[in-house]
Amino acid sequence: MKAFLKYGVMILAIVSLVWMKFAENSSSLPSPQEMEIPLDRLLLDPPPLKDSSSGELLISAQDFFPLFGGQVDWYGQQAVLRGKSPVQMVFQEDGWYILNPKGKILPSPWVVDKKLYIPLSLALEVLGLKGRNQVKALLPTPLPSQGFKYRLPPHYHLKARWDPRENAIHGELLLTFPNPYPFSLEKLVLNLPPNAPFGKGSHLEILQARIDGEEAIRKTERETVHPYFYPIPCSLDKLSRQKYSLKTYVAPGSHRLGRGEDFITAAGWYPLLSPLDKNGWRSLSCASFGDPYFAEAAYYQAQITLPREYKVLASGALKGKKERGKEITWIFHNQHPIREFAFAASSKWLISTRQEGPVTITMGGTDGFQEVLETASQALRFFQKIYSPYPYTYLHVAFVPLEGFSGMQYPGLILLNRLEPQRSGVLIHEIAHQWWYNMVGNNSIQEAWIHEGLAEYSSLLFYKHLYPDVYRAKTDRLARLGESIEVPIDLPLEKYGQESLYRQGVYARRCLFWLLLEKKAGEEKLLQALRFVQEYYRYEIVPSGSLKIILKHCCPPSEELFPLFMSQN
Q1: Confidence at 142, pLDDT banded by 50, 70, 90
Q2: Which residues contact 116 (CB under 8 A, 6 or more apart)?
Q3: According to the model, what pLDDT value does residue 437 have?
Q4: pLDDT at 480
């Protein structure tokens, strides 16, 4: 374990180089003893809170102190913080005070979910850790714990060729995985989305796997063949480099992974690292609706080769094209992590673009360019204003046939159903998903109330501020629909049983939850909470429990709403 902790520190310093260049060895790296870890490279669980007045972070004392050899004794209105410079705290009528010498603690500590939150600056002082600049504080390597992980996104390098004669994608995946957990892993698990029921007959086969240069023999759970995931036995306490040869058969049809005479839609077409949380490795859902898989954000590079008559839009900035005979290789790159890589291509598209600040909005379709580009520009401006800047230089909108969906969101890529009349609300909702699904992810199988509810609520905010008449009509309809629905908003996909109940729970009651919270707490208070979620969980997965802690702190009325809308409080 000590050896791993040293590797963890080393990885923090070099991982950006590894991500982009796939360094061949680590023999010239700095000594781990020379390295320190910035606090902003740790993802704490439970999360910190942000004081609205000073902007200072508050941390859960009972969880933070043990990471650095400290201890907290808390007895209701008294607490002792034990470290290099121990202090005693006491609660009085007007707030918390430090004794000997006496002084009021500012910003004031909070108690949320039976956790005592104190200012980060006070915690660092007691623990004797240098650095007082909040998230930039330099810390020693934390002790092993379930209370944090490192912010270390993996890197996917994809090479793929679409063969219309075989109806298959032939590909190669180079995967660099820096272990972000403060413990060694005995295995990695890859999810295989095409093989699940929502794959609609598509199939992904891993032809060969090499882990750190050695051929890997597949061993499955319970010694049976499981088509949905691919366990890789390993002893992982450092950086791992993996290479996979794969073949994905794409079934005919207007699916998220599907093909037709003039198009291919490729979402969830390659192996994805399974997210790991306190409940273990997260597999795929068997539901055919909703978002039946989710992934950790990662850096991506991709080269996609197709017949030259196809035009391609993808989850990446186009960096170049290479023509060779009857084929063109499209090269895509991301400077920031994304949730997954999807692409769509058609031989009948016309391409139109529009610039919105540093972002190039590109549309592939046959008509309706001006209206779609204008709506996309408006939505992009609005969500950047209320949440945070959009970090990518591209936003792609592709018109493809989609069975059962009006639209689907992927990182930097919006799919709109060309078989339906276009509605601006669909596009606005899918663009909102760039913040709630891509930049901040969540468990879409168990906790769809987060990304779907927030995307729909964000769409309503768009109309509220820009088109009030449309907003009133939409909220009136939601209120009427909500009166007839009592299904909890936090059920797993499979528990809804049928898609109609899922849609009512997701798009009606989940949105009503956020609207009612806005009414009780105020729009600005709610937006403060959501901005902090965007700030702290950028390119990470926010657990529902962590989101609830932040809401309880920023929007206290949320505590009375949770039992009204959710099955688990």
Answers
A1: confident
A2: 60, 61, 62, 72, 74, 79, 109, 110
A3: 98
A4: 82
Beta strands at 78-82 and 87-92: parallel, antiparallel or unpaired: antiparallel
pLDDT digits (tens, 9 = 90+) for 449-495: 999 999 999 999 999 999 999 999 999 988 887 777 778 889 888 88
Amino acid occupying residue 60: S
pLDDT grade for 138, boundaries at 50, 70 and 90: confident
Separation of alpha carbons 271 and 229, rounded Å = 9
Q: How many CB atoms lie within 10 A of CB 4?
A: 18
Alpha carbons 9 and 535: distance in angstroms, whole number:
23
* CB distance 460 to 538 below 8 Å: no
User: Can you tell me whether residue 98 is helix, strand or coil?
Assistant: strand
Q: Which residues pair with 311 in a beta bridge?
A: 346
CB 409 within 8 A of CB 397: no
pLDDT (0 to 100) of residue 29: 30
Distance CA 67, CA 144 (A): 7
Residues 6+ apart with CB under 8 A from 498: none
Contact partners, residue 202, CB within 8 Å, separation at least 6: 194, 195, 248, 249, 250, 251, 255, 257, 258, 269
Structure-token pair, residue 479:
């209120």
Q: Write the pLDDT tens digit of every residue in 173-201.
A: 999 999 999 888 888 899 999 999 999 99
Q: Which residue in the block uniquely carries the two structure tokens 């040293």?
A: 6
Mean pLDDT check: name the lowest of 43-47, 99-103, 115-119, 363-367. Answer: 99-103
C-alpha 182/C-alpha 261 separation (Å) is 49
pTM above 0.70, yes or no: yes
Report the DSSP pairing between strands 155-163 and 299-307: parallel
Within the chain, how many helices (H) and strands (E) appear?
13, 37
**Residues in CB range of 460: below 8 A, 6 or more apart:** 471, 474, 475, 511, 515
SS3 state at 323: strand
Closest Cα to residue 518, out of 529, 507, 508? Answer: 529
- The closest of 181, 121, 124 to 149, measured between CA atoms, is 181
Rounded alpha-carbon distances, angstroms, from residue 549 to 116, 324, 542, 543, 559: 12, 55, 11, 10, 10
At residue 278 the predicted structure's pLDDT band, cuts being 50, 70 and 90, is confident
**Cα dist from 2 to 5, 184, 333, 540, whole Å:** 5, 11, 36, 26
Reading the block at residue 281, the tokens are: 């490795």
Question: What domains does the chain contain, in order, with CATH numbers?
Answer: 2-148 (no CATH), 448-565 (1.10.390.10)
Q: Is the pLDDT reported for residue 224 higher than 60? A: no
CB-based contact 401:263 (threshold 8 Å): yes
| Dihedral sign from CA coordinates of 370, 373, 379, 384 | negative
CB 416 within 8 A of CB 405: no
Rounded distance between C-alpha atoms, residue 16 and residue 530, angstroms: 28
pLDDT value for 16: 39
The torsion angles phi and psi of 89, rounded to 5 degrees, stand at: -115, 145
Whether the CB-CB separation of 562 and 569 falls below 8 Å is answered with: yes
Q: Mean of the pLDDT values across residues 96-125? A: 94
* Amino acid 521: pLDDT: 97
Q: Which of 169, 500, 477, 152 is nearest to 312 (CA)?
A: 169
